[in-house]
Amino acid sequence: MTELKITQSRSLIGSSGRQRRTIEALGLRRIHHSVTRSDTPVIRGMLRTVSHLVRIEELPASEQANASKT
Fold first, then answer.
1. 62 close to 6: Cβ distance less than 8 angstroms
2. Residue 48 CB partners (closer than 8 Å, separation 6+)
3. Is pLDDT larger for residue 68 or for residue 26?
4. 26 near 55, Cβ under 8 Å?
5. CB within 8 A of 52, min separation 6: which ones?
6. 3-state secondary structure of 38
7. What span, in angstroms and rounded, lies between the C-alpha atoms of 41 and 27?
8. Is pLDDT at 8 greater than 70 in this prediction?
Protein backbone atom coordinates (compact mmCIF):
# COMPACT_ATOMS: atom_id res chain seq x y z
CA MET A 1 0.00 0.00 0.00
CA THR A 2 1.21 3.50 -0.76
CA GLU A 3 2.53 5.60 2.09
CA LEU A 4 2.07 9.35 2.47
CA LYS A 5 4.49 11.68 4.22
CA ILE A 6 2.42 14.46 5.80
CA THR A 7 4.16 17.60 7.07
CA GLN A 8 2.45 20.46 8.88
CA SER A 9 3.51 23.60 7.05
CA ARG A 10 1.28 26.29 8.56
CA SER A 11 0.22 27.37 12.03
CA LEU A 12 -3.14 26.45 13.54
CA ILE A 13 -3.70 30.02 14.75
CA GLY A 14 -7.05 31.16 13.40
CA SER A 15 -8.13 27.69 12.26
CA SER A 16 -11.40 26.10 13.26
CA GLY A 17 -11.75 23.51 15.99
CA ARG A 18 -12.49 20.85 13.40
CA GLN A 19 -9.19 21.56 11.62
CA ARG A 20 -7.28 21.51 14.93
CA ARG A 21 -8.78 18.12 15.84
CA THR A 22 -7.96 16.75 12.38
CA ILE A 23 -4.31 17.82 12.66
CA GLU A 24 -4.16 16.21 16.11
CA ALA A 25 -5.77 12.99 14.80
CA LEU A 26 -3.15 12.82 12.03
CA GLY A 27 -0.48 12.90 14.75
CA LEU A 28 1.01 16.27 13.87
CA ARG A 29 2.23 18.39 16.78
CA ARG A 30 3.94 21.49 15.41
CA ILE A 31 5.06 23.23 12.22
CA HIS A 32 7.59 21.16 10.20
CA HIS A 33 6.63 17.98 12.07
CA SER A 34 6.15 15.00 9.71
CA VAL A 35 4.34 11.68 10.00
CA THR A 36 3.92 8.74 7.65
CA ARG A 37 0.44 7.32 7.12
CA SER A 38 -1.06 4.71 4.80
CA ASP A 39 -2.95 6.06 1.81
CA THR A 40 -6.56 5.23 2.70
CA PRO A 41 -9.84 7.00 1.90
CA VAL A 42 -10.15 8.05 5.56
CA ILE A 43 -6.72 9.71 5.58
CA ARG A 44 -7.40 11.35 2.19
CA GLY A 45 -10.61 12.85 3.61
CA MET A 46 -8.74 14.20 6.62
CA LEU A 47 -6.11 15.71 4.34
CA ARG A 48 -8.79 17.38 2.24
CA THR A 49 -10.03 19.13 5.40
CA VAL A 50 -6.59 20.57 6.24
CA SER A 51 -4.99 20.72 2.78
CA HIS A 52 -4.07 24.39 3.25
CA LEU A 53 -2.13 23.57 6.45
CA VAL A 54 -0.07 20.55 5.31
CA ARG A 55 2.29 19.31 2.58
CA ILE A 56 1.73 15.81 1.25
CA GLU A 57 4.34 13.62 -0.46
CA GLU A 58 3.86 10.10 -1.78
CA LEU A 59 6.79 7.94 -0.77
CA PRO A 60 8.39 5.82 -3.51
CA ALA A 61 8.61 2.08 -2.86
CA SER A 62 12.31 2.27 -1.89
CA GLU A 63 11.61 4.87 0.80
CA GLN A 64 8.67 2.86 2.14
CA ALA A 65 10.99 -0.03 2.90
CA ASN A 66 13.45 2.32 4.65
CA ALA A 67 10.72 4.05 6.65
CA SER A 68 9.39 0.74 8.01
CA LYS A 69 12.86 -0.20 9.33
CA THR A 70 13.17 2.90 11.54
1. no
2. none
3. 26
4. no
5. 10
6. strand
7. 17
8. yes
Within 8 A by CB and 6+ apart from 36, the residues are 3, 4, 5, 6, 59, 67
Closest CA to 28 of 59, 45, 50: 50
Contact 51, 43 (CB under 8 A): no
As a whole number, mean pLDDT of residues 6-35 equals 97
Q: How many angstroms separate the CA atoms of 41 and 39, rounded?
A: 7
- Count CB neighbours of 23 within 10 A: 23
Rama region for 63: left / alpha / beta (φ>0; ψ in -120 to 50; rest) = alpha
- C-alpha–C-alpha distance, residues 64 and 32, integer Å: 20
- DSSP state string for 47-69: HHHTTTTEEEEEPPHHHHHHHHH
